[in-house]
Design the sequence.
């Protein structure tokens, strides 16, 4: 799940909070086996401070219903496909899997909010066509490889933590798990003779 939906769901988090690579990832899984993803998992990522921005704890729920925030009104639920909750010191923002339909919680706060002017570039078509058009026009797409590669790496680290069902510490510069040597076999594949890259 994290290898597919993770990049879509975590994109708004990584982008908005300007996160770099996580320093540790901890997973707890149910019914895990070596052939398929677990029935359910909770994965906790820890990101370091970035300049004046504080450290971030990010929790991913997969195959499980996430805890219901007490700030939710009785008739409010998470978006149908899942979504994101940004919990700040002054409240909560909820959005869908693709960062769509952001809402302040509770709704009374949303109604009182004055939206700022739009300053970020918008993708006018699908993300696939954004990539095609950028290639044809010789410009960077909205999610170029310099951004999407590290985002995908974060998601895959969540999968590695699920595989070893433990907390792993990540050295991004060395591309290595430093505390669980067994986990490194999932970082780089051993290619069969004749199939190396």
Sequence:
């Amino acid at each position: 799940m994290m290898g597919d939906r993770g990049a879509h769901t975590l994109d708004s988090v990584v982008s908005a909070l300007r996160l770099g690579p996580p320093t540790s990832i901890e997973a707890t899984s149910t019914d895990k086996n070596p052939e398929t993803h677990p029935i359910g998992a909770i994965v906790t990522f820890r990101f370091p401070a970035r300049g004046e921005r504080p450290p971030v704890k990010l929790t991913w729920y997969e195959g499980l219903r996430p805890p219901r925030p007490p700030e939710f009104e009785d008739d409010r639920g998470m978006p149908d496909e899942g979504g994101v909750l940004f919990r700040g010191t002054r409240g909560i923002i909820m959005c869908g899997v693709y960062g769509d339909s952001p809402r302040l919680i509770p709704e009374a706060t949303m109604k009182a909010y004055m939206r700022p002017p739009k300053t970020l570039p918008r993708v006018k078509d699908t993300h696939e066509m954004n990539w095609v058009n950028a290639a044809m026009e010789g410009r960077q797409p909205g999610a170029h490889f310099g951004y999407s590669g590290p985002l995908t790496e974060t998601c895959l680290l969540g999968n590695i933590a699920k595989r070893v069902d433990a907390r792993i510490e990540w050295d991004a510069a060395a591309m290595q798990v430093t505390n669980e040597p067994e986990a490194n076999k999932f970082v780089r594949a051993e290619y069969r003779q004749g199939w190396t890259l």
Summary: The two ends are 26 Å apart (CA to CA). The chain has one domain: 5-184. Residues 145-164 form the longest helix (20 residues). The beta strands are 24-30, 40-47, 56-62, 83-87, 92-96, 103-105, 167-171, 176-177.
